[in-house]
Amino acid sequence: MGTTLSAFDLLIASITLNNNMTLVTLDKSFESIPNLYVLILN
């Protein structure tokens, strides 16, 4: 934690949350957002 997300990352996260979707990404920093379902790919 303690990672700062860019404005674009926050926009992606907010759209994902608003649409009750799962975010599929390589970026582990999204895990810090509460209530966001994240699937981290290796």
Description of the molecule:
The chain is of the alpha+beta class and 42 residues long. Helix content is 29%, strand content 19%.
Topology:
Elements: H1 7-18, E1 22-25, E2 37-40
Parallel strand pairs: 1-2
Condensed summary:
By secondary structure, the chain is an alpha+beta fold. It has one helix and two strands.
Distance between the termini: 19 Å
- Helix percentage: 25-40%
Q: Quick one: overall form?
A: globular
| Biggest sheet record | 2 strands, parallel
Strand order, biggest sheet? 1-2
- What's the total count of β strands? 2
How many individual helices?
1
Beta-strand proportion: 15-25%
Q: Taking all residues together, what is the mean pLDDT?
A: 94
- What structural category do the secondary elements indicate? alpha+beta
Give the tally of structural domains: 1
Order of secondary-structure elements: HEE
Q: Which spans of ≥5 residues are poorly predicted at pLDDT below 50?
A: none
Output the radius of gyration.
Answer: 9 Å
